[in-house]
């Protein structure tokens, strides 16, 4: 199963999914004879704080957790996040690993923690262009779907606030109907 978060986070990232329907489907699959399930999690800039909740959900269901990483589009790659946010997510994962019972999931979480720390250690300048594209993308999603990144991914937005300030809701890529030109700079 491909899950990129737990509850509202998965509904945000995997719109228009409904968490209750996902859980019902998982329960039905678990009831099939000879069914072998695993969670495939795609680590992105959106879900670095969803790793633990998603792995714990799988662990409680007896389903191991595996992961891949978003590299493209680059605006969604986890390595665009500030170093402090990556480190905070890695610490959260480290603190939760021993709460899991499934050894394969523990190994995967340790690998994610190492990966996030390697991204945090990369000698890189802040890429403001990619950051702006990330904010534009999420704001466009929110506006088109009637969602809110702040409500769906509060841990991420709270962590980012420390490095980037309040979420910039006025940055869009897709033109609002009442604007002649796109807003491209944070105010």
Automatic annotation (TrEMBL):
Specify the protein name.
Uncharacterized protein
Organism, by scientific name, is Litorimonas cladophorae
